[in-house]
Amino acid sequence: MISYGQFLEKSLENFTYATILDGTGILRGFEQWKEKDLTSAVTLSIVAVGWPVFCICGAIYRLYFDPLAKIPGPKLAAMTTWYEAYYDVWLGGKYIFKIAELHKEYGPLIRINPHEIHCNDPNFIDDIFPGATKKTNKYRFTGRRTMTKNSMVATIQHDVHRQRRGAVANFFSSARIRKLEPIITISLEKILGRMESASKTGEVMSLNYVFKAATSDIITKYAFGNSTNFLDYPDYNMPFMKAVDSVFKMNHALMHFPWLGPLLEASPRWFCRILAPGLFDLMKMQEVWKAQVEDIRNSPDPDAGKDTIFYGILHSNLPPEEKTTARLGHEAQLTVLAGQDTTGTTLSFAVFELLANPASLKKLRAELVAAIHEPKVVPTYSQVEALPYLGAVVQEILRLHPSVVSRLPRVSPYEDVVYKNSQTGEDYNIPAGTSMNMTTWVLHTNPEVFQDPFEFIPERWIENPRLDKSLIAFAKGTRNCLGMNLARQELFTIIAGIFRKYDLYDGTGTQTCPTLELYDTERARDVDMNSDMIIPYPAEGSHGVRVVVRH
Ligand code: HEM
After folding, report:
1. pLDDT tens profile 537-547
2. Each residue's pLDDT tens digit, 520-529
3. Quick one: pLDDT band at residue 258, thresholds 50, 70, 90?
4. Does 91 map to a domain?
5. Residue whose CA is closest, atom 17 of ligand 1?
6. 481 has binding-site annotation
7. SS3 content of the chain, % helix, strand, coil (to 5)
8. What spacing in Å lies between the alpha carbon of 480 and ligand 1's midpoint?
9. Rounded to whole angstroms, how far apart are CA atoms 429 and 200?
10. Which domain holds residue 539?
11. Which of 24, 161, 225, 437 would disulfide-bridge 155, Cβ 3.0–4.6 Å?
């Protein structure tokens, strides 16, 4: 018996992923169907009867004969992907909660759909996310979610991924990221400047937008040499952020209905504007990113954009087909959105947790005051990177509020992987080609791994720093987060810069330093994840984390 994953690897060898996604495979089949005049009543009747029989046989095969049949999990999930689609498309990003529940019922290894398994055991992290000695593919359909199938994060094959990542890895080394200090400092100064203005005007600040504006400004400057400067917009360019939100919110539909992405891409822009206005706005932004890449490529000045990521890609030894505008457009979208939404969201969570947990804020401020003597000058990374309590706060935020919550699929293309359940002693063979997954939020809130998982307890990281073995906020292995050093530098510097200056408002009116107070922000409504849309979203209608600033 072969698994579906192996079947795909073999049968699709000459029939590329791109062909399927472009819909040309479907069109070719349809042409042949028409040519052979298979539209007669007889064939249609055969199809009408044959299709349900085919589906029933397929479901029986998946349930009893597929090599994944022995993996525990609900029968319906094993039979059809509609089970998952119900939670993610119909209910809107809720399968993550169901998966957490299913682990409680069926144990640490479960089958979550006919072709994929999910694990909630930290002992299996290194098998799912191995280092460079093992080949690791991405699940074939990952790129559908964001319509960026040619970006690094969606690259299926191990060797192609290594090549693409190798072309930019240098730009994300800690030494290179340290050189971004002046850019991060400018954004931090602008954030503090906007906070001071808000204290005068009485503006309630929506931190989600403030921080996404900052992280966008930083990553676009580094990627293309031109910053978006959203922190200078009166509304932080909220409409663009909302457009990005609505694209993230389409990810499950794009994943489950393979024709949707190609249809939207091929549609006239006016049609797309009516059907998916957010996507329309994003497409306009994609054109801007592509134009910036082309500016670097075609500049008469050979040094134009010299220190930027896309200069690096264009001048790397990648073959020409890897440097087309179309492919780099996908890479640009990944770079900007991965750099913007993840860290931006994490910063909002950090401010919320510190204001909601005064004892933690008190410890953090004591540490910052001792380390940074001049409150009016924004801190440098080297001043704050080794501060133990700040480090613990960052770890705890990444654990409790990971900003990538979609499951992280990895495929061992040629070798089977064995999972040993340490509780029952049972071994499960996971055939090569199977999509194996872990989910940050599910593992990070597993009480067997992290005690009191829903409490914000930075001290746990000081008592036991080795807990980091089970922290997968940035994933692990060869396909882990490339922007991790940048994210950490932004998080440390911006959190330190804000809380060196601001204390929690205590309502007495006697405080001598500037203060922050949460404004109509409720944990259940505005902070806790309500849906997995690749990044976590709060309940519908939420305004996110908001603060009032007083000087
Ligand atoms: C707190 C902030 C961040 C978190 C929690 C985070 C998390 C992650 C995770 C979990 C992955 C793996 C995704 C997968 O396997 O499907 C990933 C990949 C990636 N991230 Fe981040 N990220 C953050 C910030 C950033 C930043 C600032 C950048 C800068 C551009 C970035 C760029 C990337 C890239 C390029 C990849 C793809 C790597 C590859 O496929 O080899 N991330 N990130």
Report:
1. 999 999 999 99
2. 999 999 999 9
3. very high
4. no
5. 481
6. yes
7. 60, 10, 35
8. 7
9. 63
10. 125-550
11. 161
